[in-house]
């Protein structure tokens, strides 16, 4: 379509004595044609439903989460009212179908929710992100109707979910996992351990990746839904640099019996589901990172407008203005990468490279924005009460989980190479 329009434009310009007038009439024609025939909204355009959700989450984040963020960080624990609020607001089943108690909304809606929460607290944001974009999505895409009915409803209404893939010996090389699931009658017996599992301190439902036949290597990896009371033990709660109120625990499984109907999808396909889900989950982490970057600006800029030195507001020094403009530009670029990856995913187009780029870049921008924001406000930024040091600490995780930055670079490079083969 665009190339036909370009050819028409070239032909008309060549025929006319007044190329500029012709250009203007072609432009008028093409603009109205675009308006009439093609919907090409900017990446900042959302459906009415998505905008409503974003506004509601912004209100919840600002009014309910923000006042508790500092105390939750200090106590390294999310409070019950915040968990309850996430469920009450419908934020634990954003894409889950209404028949399973969810909101039945788009992936982009989930991304916007994660971003808005991270603007005030990256811990609450990742709790919501992992629950929605990893746990719920694996079940929505691959679980039997029985499992969907049984677990998606609980996950949307009152039970926190965890995603257990990583182990002590299996981090970036996730499929080197050693947890086993051995068939015994109509059950599987799970033995092993998981590391770094988000939400696991509060979760009632765990997706656990275990190998049913280690002789087959990664093709033995199978995904199970495991209920906490079947014997999931929290071996250790990690004390972390950032996202401190999001629980991250080491889990242990000793002869945990799981009914065979709790296998998600097909036996031996767990590796495939894990790759798929982490590819799209990365867009959620990118959203968390742009939320952190925006939240840093939200704290710093009002202070800089009010703080005067040498009789001038700090925000008006050119040396500061250029830095603010640079960070704001990079944030916009990260945001567009993230929204674009989300829309590509939603359209069913290839999005793996774009998702990796979004996560890689957004995590860099978050670190830079939080770091610069501290410098821009001076000494007060270095204190805990002001809030920026929390954003600075919280930003660091973006380069590590759901694939480190090196792994994102590897994915991007592999796909670029493929484009030229
Ligand atoms: C707070 C937190 C929450 C988490 N939540 C979850 C969760 O909910 N569920 C879950 O399953 N996991 C979770 N993880 C695990 C997380 O995904 C892993 O930590 C991550 O994948 C990296 O693995 P690793 O820590 O073992 O690092 P390693 O894989 O040991 O990496 C160490 C270094 O080596 C580099 N490296 C590794 N391989 C390569 C390579 N091929 N090329 C170049 N460099 C390489 C890495 O980039 C990194 O710099 C969480 C981790 C943290 C810290």
UniProtKB/TrEMBL annotation:
Enzyme class name: oxidoreductase
What's one GO-annotated cellular component? Answer: mitochondrial matrix
Q: Where do the Acyl-CoA dehydrogenase/oxidase N-terminal domain residues begin and end?
A: 47-157
UniProt keyword annotations, A-Z: Acetylation, FAD, Fatty acid metabolism, Flavoprotein, Lipid metabolism, Mitochondrion, Oxidoreductase, Phosphoprotein, Transit peptide
Q: Where is the Acyl-CoA oxidase/dehydrogenase middle domain?
A: 162-256
| Cofactor needs | FAD
Which GO BP terms apply? Answer: carboxylic acid catabolic process; fatty acid metabolic process
**GO function terms (MF aspect):** flavin adenine dinucleotide binding; short-chain 2-methyl fatty acyl-CoA dehydrogenase activity
Q: Where is the protein situated, by its record's location annotation?
A: Mitochondrion matrix
Q: Quick one: which pathway?
A: Lipid metabolism; mitochondrial fatty acid beta-oxidation; Amino-acid degradation; L-isoleucine degradation
Q: What is its EC number?
A: 1.3.8.5
Reaction(s) this enzyme catalyzes, per UniProt: (2R)-2-methylbutanoyl-CoA + oxidized [electron-transfer flavoprotein] + H(+) = ethylacryloyl-CoA + reduced [electron-transfer flavoprotein]; butanoyl-CoA + oxidized [electron-transfer flavoprotein] + H(+) = (2E)-butenoyl-CoA + reduced [electron-transfer flavoprotein]; (2S)-2-methylbutanoyl-CoA + oxidized [electron-transfer flavoprotein] + H(+) = (2E)-2-methylbut-2-enoyl-CoA + reduced [electron-transfer flavoprotein]; hexanoyl-CoA + oxidized [electron-transfer flavoprotein] + H(+) = (2E)-hexenoyl-CoA + reduced [electron-transfer flavoprotein]
Domain of life here? Eukaryota
Q: Which InterPro entries match?
A: Acyl-CoA_DH_CS, Acyl-CoA_Oxase/DH_mid-dom, Acyl-CoA_Oxase/DH_mid-dom_sf, AcylCo_DH-like_C, AcylCo_DH/oxidase_C, AcylCoA_DH/ox_N, AcylCoA_DH/ox_N_sf, AcylCoA_DH/oxidase_NM_dom_sf
Please report the stretch or stretches of sequence annotated as the Acyl-CoA dehydrogenase/oxidase C-terminal domain: 268-414
Q: Which PROSITE patterns match?
A: ACYL_COA_DH_1, ACYL_COA_DH_2
Q: What is its main location?
A: mitochondrion
**PANTHER family given in the database record:** ACYL-COA DEHYDROGENASE (PTHR43884), SHORT_BRANCHED CHAIN SPECIFIC ACYL-COA DEHYDROGENASE, MITOCHONDRIAL (PTHR43884:SF1)
Q: Which family does it belong to?
A: Belongs to the acyl-CoA dehydrogenase family.
Subunit (UniProt): Homotetramer.
| Listed name of the protein | Short/branched chain specific acyl-CoA dehydrogenase, mitochondrial
């Amino acid at each position: 379509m665009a190339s036909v329009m370009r050819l028409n434009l070239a032909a008309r310009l060549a025929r006319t004595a007044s190329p500029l007038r012709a250009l203007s009439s072609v432009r008028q024609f093409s603009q109205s044609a675009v308006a009439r025939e093609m919907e090409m909204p900017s990446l900042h355009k959302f459906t009415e439903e998505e905008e409503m959700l974003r506004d509601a989450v912004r209100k919840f984040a600002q009014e309910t989460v923000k006042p508790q963020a500092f105390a939750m960080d200090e106590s390294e624990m999310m409070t019950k009212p915040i968990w309850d609020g996430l469920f009450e607001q419908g934020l634990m089943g954003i894409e889950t179908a209404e028949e399973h108690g969810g909101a039945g909304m788009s992936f982009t809606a989930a991304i916007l929710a994660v971003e808005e929460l991270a603007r005030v607290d990256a811990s609450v944001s990742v709790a919501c992100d992992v629950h929605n974009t990893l746990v719920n999505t694996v079940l929505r895409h691959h679980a039997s109707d029985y499992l969907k009915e049984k677990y998606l409803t609980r996950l949307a209404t009152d039970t926190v979910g965890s995603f257990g893939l990583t182990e002590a010996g299996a981090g970036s090389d996730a499929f080197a996992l050693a947890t086993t699931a051995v068939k015994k009658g109509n059950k599987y017996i799970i033995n092993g351990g998981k590391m770094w599992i988000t939400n696991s301190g509060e979760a009632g439902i765990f997706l656990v990746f275990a190998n049913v036949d280690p002789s087959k290597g990664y093709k033995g990896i199978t995904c199970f839904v495991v209920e906490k009371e079947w014997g999931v033990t929290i071996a250790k709660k990690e004390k972390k640099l950032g996202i401190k109120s999001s629980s991250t625990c080491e889990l242990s499984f000793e002869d945990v019996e799981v009914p065979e109907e709790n296998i998600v999808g097909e036996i031996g396909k767990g590796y495939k589901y894990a790759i798929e889900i982490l590819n799209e989950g990365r867009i959620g982490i990118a959203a968390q990172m742009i939320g952190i970057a925006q939240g840093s600006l939200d704290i710093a800029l009002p202070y800089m407008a009010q703080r005067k030195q040498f009789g001038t507001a700090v925000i008006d020094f050119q040396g500061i203005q250029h830095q603010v403009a640079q960070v704001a530009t990079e944030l916009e670029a990260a945001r567009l990468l993230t929204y674009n990856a989300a829309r590509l995913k939603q359209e069913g187009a290839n999005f793996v490279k774009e998702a990796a780029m979004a996560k890689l870049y957004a995590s860099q921008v978050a670190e830079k924005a939080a770091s610069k924001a501290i410098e821009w406000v001076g000494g007060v930024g270095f204190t805990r009460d002001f809030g920026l040091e929390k954003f600075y600490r919280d930003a660091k995780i973006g380069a590590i989980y759901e694939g480190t930055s090196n792994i994102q670079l590897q994915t991007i490079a592999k796909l670029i190479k493929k484009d030229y083969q």
